[in-house]
Design goal:
There is one protein chain. The protein is an all-alpha fold. The chain folds into two domains: about 90 residues; about 40 residues, no CATH class. About 70% of the residues lie in helices and about 5% in strands. Strands 1-2 form a two-stranded antiparallel ribbon. Strand 1 and strand 2 form a beta hairpin. The longest helix is centred in the first third of the chain and has 58 residues. The radius of gyration is 24 Å and the shape is elongated. The relative contact order is 0.07.
Length: about 140
């Protein structure tokens, strides 16, 4: 009977491990799907910008406002893609330049890739000061 109990216990542990791994695989698939959708959305946005630019240059229609309205969407999608890639790589706390994508260390004030000043993350000290000033 002891062998049967050991076998059942072993099978139970194996089933638990399989369930955990299945959950991890499911999470990875969801992240990769989100990444795929974000990339497709970015391609579509670039395509819209291209069509508007062609229309503007070929037919002399002013499309600058429409093009400018799409640019924040490009930035948002690029940030989303970068974050998803970081999560997939297991480096979700990595910081990158919003201008050129160079990986930064927390103490960098300027991007070594493009020279753009980098915003400082809010610290607890800064947050306390702001909260006190708002009162």
């Amino acid at each position: 009977m002891a062998n049967w109990d050991q076998f059942r216990e072993g099978m139970s542990r194996t089933a638990d491990m399989a369930a955990r791994k299945a959950g991890e695989v499911g999470d990875a698939v969801k992240l990769r799907y989100k990444l795929h959708r974000a990339r497709a959305e970015l391609r579509d946005t670039y395509e819209k910008i291209g069509r508007l630019t062609y229309d503007q240059l070929h037919f002399h229609h002013d499309r600058a406002l429409e093009i400018n309205n799409l640019l924040p969407e490009v930035g948002r999608l690029r940030d989303q893609i970068r974050r998803l890639n970081n999560v997939i790589k297991g480096d979700e706390n990595a910081v990158y330049c919003s201008n050129c994508g160079t990986q930064l260390t927390p103490e960098m004030d300027y991007c070594p890739g493009c020279g753009k000043p980098q915003p400082r993350p809010a610290t607890a000290e800064t947050t306390d000061t702001v909260a006190a000033d708002e009162v």
